[in-house]
Write a structure and sequence with these properties.
Layout: H1 2-25, H2 30-55, H3 61-86, H4 91-114
Helix pairs in contact: 1-2, 2-3, 3-4
InterPro entries: DUF6490
Pfam families: DUF6490 (PF20100)
Keywords: Membrane, Transmembrane, Transmembrane helix
């Protein structure tokens, strides 16, 4: 248990250090800095919601709320990374990137909220 907490702490320290270094390398460019900050905060929120999901008792409203939080944050991350990558690509590849992001978000919604394994 203590090693798990230490690993989590080291991961957050590395994520924070990497984000700070990326902000420094962006030289104050607002779109670069915004991308880094939104990505960092989204990842932190994702870990918070995952921790809440794991800690909540089965079939509790808290678990459902955490699951919704996980889906919203992962949808945000998919959109942010797609926006960032698609800006560098020609339009046909850009369209493919957005279709893949949308299908990932919709597939995640289906898997988290609509699909109930073992229920006929």
């Amino acid at each position: 248990m203590a090693s798990e907490a230490a690993t989590t702490c080291i991961g957050f320290i590395l994520l924070t250090a990497s984000s700070i270094a990326a902000i420094h390398r962006s030289h104050g460019e607002i779109t670069e800095t915004s991308f880094i900050v939104v990505s960092y905060l989204s990842l932190v929120l994702l870990f918070v919601f995952l921790r809440r999901f794991e800690a909540a008792p089965r079939n509790s409203p808290a678990r459902g709320g955490a699951k919704a939080g996980v889906w919203v944050v992962t949808a945000l991350l998919a959109a942010v990374f797609s926006w960032r990558v698609s800006a560098l690509m020609p339009w046909p590849v850009d369209a493919i990137i957005w279709v893949m992001a949308a299908s990932t978000v919709l597939g995640g919604f289906y898997a988290l909220f609509l699909h109930h394994p073992g229920v006929d």
